[in-house]
Amino acid sequence: MKSQWLKDLSHQFSSNRREIASLLILIPFVFIVLYSHQIYSYLFPGDAEVASHKIEVHFLDKEHEKNDFSLLGQVNPNHLKVKDWMKLHFSEEIANRIVNYRLKGGHFYSKYDLYAIYNIDKSKVDELLPYLIFPKKKVYEKKFSNVSSSTSFATMRKKKSKALALQKFDPNTVEEHSLIAMNLSPYFIKSLINYRAKGGKFYKAEDVSKLYGVDSSLYYVIKDYISIENIEQKAVVVEKLLRINLNTASLDQLKQLKGIGNVKAQKILEHKKRLGGSFYQKEQLKEVYGIDSLLFESVSSQVFVVPEDLKKIPINTATYEQLATHPYLSYKQARWIIKYREQHGKYEDIEDLLKIKMIKLKDIENILPYLSFR
Among 40-49, 101-110, 148-157, where is mean pLDDT lowest? Predict the structure, then answer.
């Protein structure tokens, strides 16, 4: 039995002899690979230090490439961005100042332009000078080079402008070609013609000075040449005799008002119709398109309203359409007024109207004069 066990063991080792030989060869090889650096350092100490130094420099250079900006050639400082200046070892604040200066229209034509940046390190600028290329500053040729230096531009303009050839004229009737013949400015002529086209009239010489764009210097030059027929008589008629009731005035009567032409007169009548046929105060004219505060001031003394002429809306019988079409009420407010009346009965006074939560006093203060609670 014992001899049989020995035979089996012997047979097993003999069958793995090749594997054992391979293992014996592999073990020293692994050992050499694992300790190659120490072996090389032992055999070639000087070369090992050089190799280590090369590896260290290699990684430092890679890190330097990430954090530094390489100036391999000359560059224009006007083309560098914030990150480029930072890579050149300028702080973020200084880099932003440099770029902001350029974005606002500034340019760097020499190192002194860079020196002008607040708090910049001039020594760093000097270090970069071999790598910077500055553009040449553009020089614009002077215009009118054929004119002598003693001749000013203002003098040239004066020579080009024509002298005025003024004659007596009535601004209410003068033709455009006559104004052109007097060498008056196109701007003045256009302003006068447009004013007349809109229904404007001149009752006295001073009215010309109120034209848009007419300055006092021009007026004092031409005032002695302005001749308006029956100037004093017309001024008296306008300022003292002309009084128009806005609620009964016709189109022709409204056109007599200073500054109110055909178009504005029609708009006044249209607005009066939307209000129900009457104004309760003359200040309502300022609600008409085209009548501003200045124009209203010029006509306010010539117009008036009679309170008895006011046409009111009977709030307890008015239809939804009557209320909704009035310019001082919205569609929603008209609907709320009708619904409240249907649910709670007739309105006795404004207090009942204010019981509607959605309507405030400021919402109805304009419409109130037009409402009748009878």
Answer: 148-157
* H-helix segments, the chain: 2-15, 17-34, 36-43, 45-67, 82-87, 92-103, 111-115, 122-128, 153-160, 176-181, 186-197, 216-222, 231-236, 251-255, 262-274, 293-299, 320-324, 331-344, 350-353, 361-364
Question: Domain range holding 17?
Answer: 2-34
User: Residues of 64-86 as b/e, b for ≥16 C-beta within 10 angstroms?
Assistant: eeeeeeeeeeeeebbebebebbb
Judgement on whether residues 177 and 216 belong to the same structural domain of the protein: yes
Q: Are strands 371-372 and 313-314 parallel, antiparallel or unpaired?
A: parallel
pLDDT of residue 53: 44
Q: What values do phi and psi take at 204, rounded to 5?
A: -150, 160
pLDDT, residue 30, reads: 74
DSSP 3-state assignment of 314? Answer: strand
* pLDDT tens-digit map of 175-227: 998 999 998 888 888 888 888 888 788 888 888 888 877 777 788 888 889 98
User: Are residues 88 and 127 located together in one domain of the fold?
Assistant: yes
CATH code assigned at 356? 1.10.150.280
At 11, the amino acid letter reads H
In a domain, 72, yes or no: no
Q: Tell me the C-alpha distance between 316 and 371, whole Å.
A: 10
In a domain, 71, yes or no: no
Mean pLDDT of 29-39: 70
Co-location of 179 and 214 in the same domain: yes
pLDDT of 151 higher than 50: no
Q: What is the pLDDT of residue 360?
A: 81
Residue 137 falls inside a structural domain: no
Q: Minimal CA–CA distance to 304: which of 244, 365, 217?
A: 244
CB 272 within 8 A of CB 279: yes
The CATH number for 211's domain is: 1.10.150.320
Give the three-state DSSP class for 273.
Answer: helix
134-170 burial: b if 16+ Cβ within 10 Å, else e: beeeeeeeeeeeeeeeeeeeeeeeeeeeeeeeeeebe
Based on the fold, state whether residues 305 and 343 are members of the same structural domain: no
Domain count, the chain: 5
CB atoms < 10 A from the CB of 333, how many? 19
